[in-house]
Design goal:
The protein is built from 7 helices and 12 strands. It is of the alpha/beta class and about 250 residues long. The structure holds nicotinamide-adenine-dinucleotide (NAD).
C-alpha cells in the first residue's frame, strides 16, 4: 500500500485523483493540502503541510507553482518523495526543486499522461529525421487555464530542441518578417472545457506530417501521477521523469 498526500486536493485534478485513489486498492490518501479547505474529507486536510501528523510514502502536487518552496521544505524535513505535476514554475522554483532532488526523490513532468510522453519521443525522432521541416506546436486548453503556453507544449519544444537548433517564437504580430528556418512556433488556444490537445506540425516542401494527442479526460493525468508516486516511493534521491518510468515499463 502506497500512502499519499495530495496537494491541491480541492482543485480539478485533486478531485479526480481523490476519486481514482478511492477506487485503487494499492494506494491510500492519508492527507490533503489546499489553501481552499472546502468541504471535509475522509482524511485530514490542511493548508500547511507541517500540520499533518502522518508521514506519507509520496506527495502528489497538483496545486500552484508558487507552492513549490513550501513543498520542497516539507519534503526535505520529512524526507518525503514528491511528484511535481504542477506547471508554470519560475526558474527560482525549478532550481529549488532540483536542489531538493539531491536529498529526496523528486518526479517532475509537465504532463503525466503516458500517451503524451510517447508523443514527445515520436516528435524527437521526427525532428531529427525531418531536420529541414518547419516545426509548429499548437496547444488547446480550457478557459480556466492560467499559464500559457502549456508546460506540455514547452516540454515538446524542448524535445525538438534536444535534436536540432531551435528558437521559440510565441508571437508573430510584433515583427513583419519571414519565418526563420530554426523557429519553433508555439501557439496557445483557450476555450470552453477542452481538457488538453497538443499537435506538432512538421511542414516541408509539398508535405506535412502532424503528430497529435487529445486528452479526453483528466483521469489520464491522475493515473500517470499515481504510477509516478508508486515509482518514486522508496527510491533513492534524484530527479525522475516519465522517460525513466517508460523505460521501466
Ligand atoms: N502534469 C500534468 O499532467 C497536469 C495535468 C493537469 C493539470 N496540471 C497542472 O496542475 C495544476 C493544477 O491544475 P488544476 O486544473 O487542478 O487547477 P485548479 O485551479 O483546479 O486546482 C488547484 C488547486 O490548488 C489549490 N492551491 C492554489 N494555490 C495553492 C497554494 N499556494 N497552496 C495550496 N493549495 C493551493 C487551489 O485552491 C485549488 O484547489 C496546474 O498547474 C496545471 O497546469 C498538470
Amino acid at each position: 500500500m502506497v500512502r499519499l498526500i495530495i496537494s491541491g486536493i480541492n482543485g480539478k485534478m485533486g478531485k479526480v485523483l481523490e476519486t481514482m485513489c478511492e477506487n485503487t486498492d494499492s494506494v491510500e490518501i492519508i492527507g490533503g493540502i489546499d489553501i481552499n479547505l472546502g468541504v471535509p474529507h475522509k482524511f485530514p486536510t490542511v493548508s500547511d503541510p507541517f500540520e499533518l501528523q502522518d508521514k506519507a510514502d509520496a506527495i502528489i502536487d497538483f496545486s500552484h507553482h508558487s507552492f513549490a518552496p513550501v513543498l520542497c521544505r516539507y519534503a526535505l524535513e520529512t524526507k518525503t518523495p514528491v511528484v511535481f505535476s504542477t506547471t508554470g514554475h519560475s526558474d527560482d522554483e525549478l532550481n529549488m526543486i532540483r536542489d531538493t532532488s539531491k536529498t529526496v526523490p523528486v518526479f517532475k513532468s509537465a504532463n503525466m499522461s503516458l500517451g503524451v510522453n510517447l508523443l514527445t519521443e515520436l516528435v524527437k525522432k521526427a525532428a531529427a529525421v525531418l531536420n529541414d521541416f518547419d516545426v509548429e506546436i499548437i496547444e488547446k486548453h480550457h478557459n480556466q487555464k492560467i499559464d500559457a503556453p502549456s508546460g506540455t507544449a514547452l516540454m515538446i519544444a524542448e524535445a525538438v530542441k534536444s535534436v536540432r537548433d531551435g528558437e521559440y517564437v510565441f508571437d508573430r504580430t510584433k515583427e513583419k518578417k519571414k519565418r526563420e528556418k530554426n523557429e519553433i512556433g508555439i501557439h496557445s488556444v483557450r476555450g470552453g472545457t477542452i481538457v488538453g490537445e497538443h499537435e506538432v506540425i512538421f511542414a516541408g516542401n509539398n508535405e506535412i506530417i502532424s503528430i497529435s494527442h487529445t486528452a479526453q479526460s483528466r483521469e489520464i493525468f491522475a493515473a500517470g501521477a499515481i504510477r509516478a508516486a508508486k515509482f518514486i516511493a522508496g527510491r533513492q534521491n534524484g530527479m525522475y521523469s516519465m522517460e525513466d518510468l517508460i523505460k521501466e515499463i
